[in-house]
Amino acid sequence: MLATEDFRRAAFDIVEAEPGTVLIYPLILEDKLWLLWAGAGGVLKSYEVDISQAEVTNAVLRFRQLLNTPNSDVAELEAVGKTLYNWFIQPIEDELDQNAVGNLVFSLDRAARYIPMAMLHDGEHYLIE
Predict the structure, then answer these.
(1) Which CATH architecture has domain 4-119?
(2) What is the pLDDT of residues 12-42, one digit of tens each?
(3) For 84-129, what is each residue's pLDDT tens digit?
(4) Beta-sheet strand order (sheet of 43-49)
(5) Domain layout of the chain by residue ranges
């Protein structure tokens, strides 16, 4: 795991390379999820989500199964994608909107590295949209 100062340095290098970029690092702990994010100008913030590692892992596994199965129920895929969206994006959505963020860079931890973040669903659109 990166030390705080190493994370800051790496994050700022990434976000300074392209205007409107934010680096999001979801740190999945046993009993909670920490969303760390960094943007241009030294913005480094965190948000705690009350969700366990087991719950995240189960949702990720189900999401992967749905993505990998031809003829999966699209409504179920979107519902699981929305659950993941609510954990990984929704807590910081207002911050992203207020700062005109156009590029999201993820540094994924544990089970989160096994899902395509672009497929997360907000109830109306996929994150990629």
Answers:
(1) 2-Layer Sandwich (3.30)
(2) 777 777 778 888 889 999 999 999 888 876 6
(3) 999 999 998 888 888 778 889 898 888 899 989 999 999 999 998 8
(4) 43-49, 33-39, 21-28, 103-106
(5) 4-119
